[in-house]
Amino acid sequence: MWTLFRLVLLTTTWLANSSVSAKEEECSLSHLQPNATSEKCEFKEHDGLLVCFHSLDDRWKSGSENVKTLILCHWSLETFDPAVALHGFPSLRNLIITNGSLVTLSSAFPAEIRLVETIKVTGTRLEKLPDHAFSDLENLKRLDLRNNSIQDANVSGLELPLLREVYLSGNPLKCAESTKWILDERENSLGRKIVDKKNLRCAAPFEGRPLFQVVEIIKTLTEECMKTVCECELAYVVSEGKKHIQTQLMAFVSVNCSDRGLTEIPDFLPANTTTLRLTGNKIHNLRPLTSNPAYRGVIDLYLDDNQIESIVQLEGSSWLDRFRLLSLRGNGLTDLPAYALANVLQQNRNAVGLYLGNNPWRCDCLFTPGFQDLLIKYTNLVKDINDVRCSSTDEDDNRGKIIRDLTRTEICMPPDEDPLLHPLDVLNIILAFLILLIIGKVLYDYWSFRRTGKLPWIVTKIP
Fold it and tell me: Which pTM does this prediction carry?
């Protein structure tokens, strides 16, 4: 019995849809010219069908009890006021507005046309609907809003007892938390009434992505973000399959935990977190990056202005092998394993940015030469290289200097030595003086021999 009832219902729905589609064809079959500048209407009394191009004639502006189906083709105005335009059509059952310049519905549909069963507004530039636009249409069964410019799919006032079909595809719908009602599959819920749910697509920034799946991701993200003290945002969504094939989506989530007074890196992160901002906290331990599975997908990490004094804990970790951006500005770093980090950067093809500025780097002959080689070799990766300077608190001549620009003499010279009296410099001066003295003596002996014919004294003493 139930199967028979469903068959009858589906058949009735199909016939009703076919009837509406056939009537809509009047826009192309009518002898009235759609590009005419004058307002023209044609009424078929037998069918109760009124077809108008561009607008309503003066004759029909006061309405008619005989009109059951009203088709407005190529509406020329940007606004349509249902309360005014539909006044005097108490017998109206079907309203179709197709194509044209329509942008705004300036009022809700009046209770005067409460008998209407189908409303179809398609192929226009309609951007939004008034609040509770359809609340007074207690007999509305079918609402078709396809191929418009609607961004907010939160159609209020559609909890109507007889409404069974709502069409929304072809609109640049906004995929946001406010659209999560579309996930509701309860009986008589609006989400269940959306017939073309699988064809709905998001507008920017998730342009072209399946709306239903994106909203599911946003809903899950919102629930998981409530377990943290952070702010969460769905940054990007990509398909994991070929174009035009229904596939799963890959989400990229950005989490901002800056200025939360955290002393440790969070133990929990929402799924698909790829960017994490922890700026302005009191974090000093980076070990969770190497041991907590929640950080496997984090590739962009901002740890500026914390209390980090060492990154030795990251040496040899898989996280360091795959990171894309690491910012450690404004911490307490005085040194780092330069050789190990250089090996990591050589193998990590994902790395695009490393920020190390505003740290109190130690400048001595033991650490700085290797660190300087690292900075010079990976100048394109160290984005703030001019801010990587020797500690300004050190009592030497290198304090506050850019490490990349230091000479080896500046790096390795003991701070208590006067560079003008360096032993090597003194030795070089003495050797130069002796060389000049020998050359002068040789020249003098040569001149003396030519003049007197006598050999130099030292030559006569040589056996």
Answer: 0.76
